[in-house]
Write a structure and sequence with these properties.
The structure holds two protein chains of two kinds.
Chain A (H helix, E strand, L loop, with lengths): L2 H38 L9 H16 L2 H7 L1 H8 L5 H25 L3 H9 L4 H35 L7 H10 L4 H29 L6
Chain B lengths: L1 E10 L6 E11 L4 E5 L6 H8 L7 E6 L2 E2 L5 H8 L2 E5 L10 H11 L4 H14 L15 H13 L5 E5 L7 H18 L2 E6 L2 H7 L2 E6 L2 E7 H6 L4 H11 L21 E9 L18 H9 L2 E12 L2 E11 L2 H13 L3 E8 L1
Parallel strand pairs in B: 3-8, 3-9, 6-7, 7-8
Antiparallel strand pairs in B: 1-2, 1-4, 4-5, 9-10, 11-13, 11-14, 12-13
Helix pairs in contact in B: 3-4, 3-5, 4-5, 5-6, 10-11
Classes of the chains: A mainly alpha, B alpha/beta.
Chain lengths: 220, 356
């Protein structure tokens, strides 16, 4: 593989990281409050409200059931409105965020539901407000599980970002398609796949380690 | 200190309404340890949660420390709850916080300064003797230590009332004893009013001043612990008392052929309970039980023989009481007179039966 190719690979790697990292941060910022609202508005939870719960749940499900490649095309007008263009790496961040946010919302909802109801009841018995219960009990108690969920979302985003290459998003997926597939450069294809595997492994390893450090349930 | 007036709780559902608690009236005095005993599903959990409104009653009024909780809005209720500590069967500690931070939690909620919190948590750690465990996480503690943290946390904001929801049910007997000891200790030292629900008669016997028995959402019996324990009226209460005070008849006595009426040569098996004179306050009439030589009196007066099979001295909270399992041998009249004499002397006599 030529030095030129290696430069290209590094550039693509940089693009993938840029897309995925910004998208995961934005998606978490959107998904976290959604997940919290989905949880606390359940009918047996601290702020039951079936209307909010059902409407939000339906929106989240609708977004999640749309295949990414279709979602990406469907929201082109919206993407153009936000970033001014529908082509390019920055433009890819919009659909990536929109696909990851509801996923993260569900993941956070399931983490929050794992929090022992007894602990929430104890906080209520001490006179904690719903906001205090969310910020001081539910989120800290499930943080280790939330971290694993976000790790999962991050890995899913790395996969989705390869598809974003199809719309001129750049990144590793784009590189593999254009050089590896369309120009039959097998070495580029293999190199790209190896970089992706290492990335995913790295993300999972870091996520696991962080979660383990945060989990105080099984100390000896 | 606590007053429940006609408190009701009904759960409404499509499958039908469930009355978990029917019109309940309870009054708990300041500084008292009040026990509520019942089997699972009797409504005791619902009852204790009505006191701090974790369960909102569907009817009636709840008063704690002169304030009517049932008339409050959410914010007022949260404020009032800071005056009511609660401990739980499964401790319900925050796993992600250290012992120190768990105890600090209610103080953080109230918005106290870091210095004040540290000072107060220090006092509480001393109270429950866990200062050396301040930086441990709950998963590193034993059950008894976890409950001590739970108690310290419940006491952090100097509440006037402590609610105990089966606080010792998940602990072994020895740890149970030490936790009960701690509760008694803080009850005395801080003049803290304690309401505890339990299904264990040993717990009631160990520390309660008064007790209510609940069944199917209704308080079926209530009184001083001494009275309920020594003279249980309802069948459920009697069953509970039996769990700690069961008469064990040794296998050498042939209970198979036991009869309820006299036959020649029969010996009457009776269980005698000697109550401390004047025990249980004014509600129990003065009895003379333990300071009279009963057995020798029976032998002399009625010409019977008395064979002691077993005996023990036990305590109801601080009050001692003794039990003797004896056989009375003699003619029909002598035995009948003996039983009557013992009863007149204030000894509780349970006739078990005639054995050959």
């Amino acid at each position: 593989m030529s030095a030129n190719m290696i430069d290209l690979l590094l550039k693509s790697l940089g693009e993938t990281c840029y897309m995925v990292l910004i998208a995961i941060v934005l998606a978490t910022l959107i998904g976290l409050p959604l997940g919290v609202i989905l949880t606390v508005t359940r009918k047996d939870h601290i702020m039951p409200n079936s209307v909010v719960h059902n409407v939000l749940g339906a929106i989240v499900n609708a977004t999640r059931s749309t295949p990414f490649i279709i979602l990406m095309v469907a929201i082109i007008p919206f993407t153009r409105m936000i970033v001014g263009s529908s082509i390019g790496t920055t433009a890819a961040i919009v659909p990536l965020t929109i696909t990851a946010a509801p996923f993260i919302a569900r993941v956070i909802e399931s983490s929050l539901l794992e929090v022992d109801r007894g602990v929430i009841e104890a906080a209520q018995s001490m006179g904690a407000s719903p906001i205090q219960i969310i910020s001081k009990v539910m989120l800290p108690e499930s943080l280790h599980s939330i971290v694993l969920g976000i790790t999962l979302a991050l890995i899913a985003l790395i996969g989705a970002s390869a598809m974003a290459g199809a719309l001129g998003g750049g990144g590793l997926g784009d590189l593999a398609i254009r050089y590896g597939y369309q120009r039959f450069q097998m070495d580029v294809m293999i190199a790209t796949v190896i970089v992706l595997i290492v990335m995913v492994q790295g993300v999972q390893t870091v996520g696991n380690a962080l979660s383990r450090k945060l989990n105080k349930n099984k100390l000896s | 200190m606590i007053k429940l007036v006609n408190v009701e709780k009904t759960y409404f559902s499509k499958a039908g309404n469930i009355a978990a608690l029917k019109k309940t009236n309870i009054e708990v005095k300041e500084g008292e340890i009040f026990g509520i005993i019942g089997l699972s599903g009797a409504g005791k959990s619902t009852l204790i949660r009505c006191i701090n409104m974790l369960e909102v009653p569907t009817g009636g009024q709840v008063f704690v420390d002169g304030q009517e909780l049932t008339a409050m809005n959410e914010a007022q209720l949260r404020k009032a709850r800071q005056n009511i500590g609660m401990i739980f069967q499964h401790f319900n500690l925050l796993a992600s916080r250290t012992v120190f931070d768990n105890i600090a939690f209610p103080l953080e909620i109230q918005g106290l300064s870091k210095d004040k919190i540290a000072e107060r948590v220090g006092e509480l750690l001393d109270l429950v003797q866990l200062r050396d465990r301040a930086d441990y996480y709950p998963s590193q503690l034993s059950g008894g230590q976890k409950q001590r943290v739970g108690i310290a946390r419940a006491l952090a904001s100097n509440p006037k009332v402590l609610l105990s929801d089966e606080a010792t049910s998940a602990l072994d007997p020895q740890t149970t004893k030490s936790i009960l000891q701690l509760l008694r200790d803080i009850n005395k030292r801080l003049n803290l009013t304690i309401v505890m629900i339990t299904h264990q008669m040993e717990v009631v016997k160990e520390i309660c001043d008064r007790v209510a028995v609940i069944e199917n959402g209704v308080i079926i019996e209530e009184g001083t612990m001494y009275k309920v324990f020594t003279e249980p009226q309802m069948e459920t209460t009697q069953e509970f008392v039996k769990t700690v005070n069961d008469i064990k008849i040794p296998p050498i006595i042939d209970t198979q052929s036991m009869k309820q009426s006299y036959f020649p040569g029969a010996r009457l098996l009776v269980n005698l309970t000697f109550l401390d004179s004047g025990a249980g306050g004014d509600e129990v009439e003065k009895k003379t039980g333990a300071d009279q030589p009963l057995v020798s009196a029976l032998i002399k007066k009625f010409g019977v023989d008395v064979n002691i099979i077993s005996g023990k001295v036990d305590y109801l909270k601080d009050t001692p009481y003794g039990t003797l399992l004896v056989e009375i041998m003699g003619d029909e009249k002598g035995i009948a007179d003996s039983v009557q004499y013992a009863r007149d002397a204030g000894v509780k006599v349970e006739v078990i039966g005639y054995v050959g």
